[in-house]
Amino acid sequence: MAYEIPVTQARAELADLINRVVYGGERVVVTRHGKPLVALVSAEDLRRLDEAEETAQEEQVISSVSSIGSTSPAGGDRQRFGIAAEHHGPRMS
After folding, report:
1. How many separate domains does the chain show?
2. Structural domain for 8, as ranges
3. Residue closest to 50 by CA, chosen among 23, 19, 42
């Protein structure tokens, strides 16, 4: 659970808040009128969040590519629908 603090109080206590985040491992949410504005997290937490985001994006790409690869190729449509016309070349009498 994150520690919440109003922006006016956060301004006055910024150095203390930074120490709480860095050395205490806390997460601080700065609010305005009771609504979250920003969060103070350690650089390590930010790195983990970035890695999680990258992993999620990679998994989405892999999923998209996998679904494209699982569709039947155009040749499969020929077999499914049959051949509409066939070319035999010029007739020799």
Report:
1. 1
2. 1-44
3. 42
The answer for residues whose C-beta is within 8 angstroms of residue 32's C-beta and 6 or more apart is 6, 7
Question: What is the distance between the alpha carbons of residues 91 and 93, in angstroms, rounded to a whole number?
Answer: 6
pLDDT digits (tens, 9 = 90+) for 11-30: 999 999 999 999 999 999 99
Identify whether the C-beta of residue 3 lies closer than 8 Å to the C-beta of residue 27: yes
**Could you tell me if 56 and 70 are in contact, meaning their C-beta atoms sit under 8 angstroms apart?**
no
Q: Is the pLDDT of residue 89 over 90?
A: no
Distances (CA, A) of 73 to 30, 65, 78, 82: 53, 14, 9, 14
- Token pair listed for 80: 């499914």
